[in-house]
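Hi team,

Below is the intake form for Phage capsid-like C-terminal domain-containing protein from Effusibacillus dendaii. Please confirm the fields before the structure is written into the shared record.

FORM ID: S-0412
PROTEIN: Phage capsid-like C-terminal domain-containing protein
ORGANISM: Effusibacillus dendaii
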Amino acid sequence: MEVLKVRNIIEMRQQRAALVQQARDILNKAESENRDLTAEETQEYDRIMADVDRRAAEIEREERLQGIENELTRSSRTVVVDPNAVPNQQRADQKLHETDEYRSAFWQAVRQGQNALDHEQVRMLLDPEVRALVTQTNTAGGYLVPNEFERTLVEKLLPFNVMRGLATVITTSSGTTQIPVESDFGTAQWIGEGAAYTDTDSTFAQVTLSAYKLTTMIKVSEELLNDSAFNIDNYVASAFARRMGTTEEAAFVNGDGTGKPTGVVSGATQGKVGATGQTTSVTVDDIIDLYHSLKRPYRPTATWMLADATAKAIRKLKDSTGQFIWQPGLQAGQPDRLLSRPVAISDNVPAMAASAKSILFGDFSYYWIADRQGTVMQRLSELYAANGQVGFRMFKRTDGKLILPEAVVYYQNSAT
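The structure came back. Fields below:
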């Protein structure tokens, strides 16, 4: 099965490469005839590139899922449990919300409500050990989601959240997290034999990550909930992941830090400003200047991040030798590249406009995401009862911030 999946990705990349060549042929033909693209050629070019982007997203999703599946497979092979060794007891190294019993009680409460639970199931869901993992007492009926479901939720978040794949993600049990950052490394000096050493200590700053609350609600019909064939956990995970992933991504990229995370755009350092008149454009020289504005130690692990419309404009740029500076990823597991560094597309990066910070370049692992341990889901049995529906509310607490501004630089379009 794994071999078939790899072959499938290779075929997908070969098909994408063929589309890229078709797009290049259109541009090359117009250039060789020393003319602009016709309306028909422009329409065909845009259609092809839209297909290229769609296939790139499909390839990325498949590769991420395969990586997660492989990791889960490896983990499952390293755990050996004898169910007869300690019947009806929790393993010594296993937390309560990781047990099969907790998972069974949780999903029964989701499908049928708390009244359908027996005393032991209620005790598990309300256990102080579990309550301690969340930020507030769930007097309104919310429960900490099972550990396995939380992993599934994170997996489903990835296609909707570029930043989580690039940033450093930690889980914390505290409301705020203090991260020490070495902002000055100190220096070394040449001294004479027997001369005194000069003290040059490193300088540390502290970055604080808070815990902002993100929540959403969905509705499910009573008929579906009562249908044993309906996969409630997969449906809920997908529905919440789409909403939360999209909202998180917007904040991690372009958030203002007020009631939400501070986006990487706000924290980045100015690298290059376009010349007067470049309010909606960028040149090859601008891209090169932005690349070199990032300090050299960060470049080997740097990634470009930009909106799709900006990517479309850059794809048409050629260097002095007539070669496109955009290099599509044609090898399995390889993303598109710009000046030999990978490209990530996020439409939350501002589009090119007057004074817009439209292109980011840097090491995004210096953007830290701190997830507060424990995602909570609550069944709302009465709110939509008149419509024959049951509501579900989920919330989590998280924050994100670029802890070292020099690690990411931006291109800013000119103001006029």
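SUMMARY LINE: The first strand starts at residue 142 and ends at 144.

Thanks, M.
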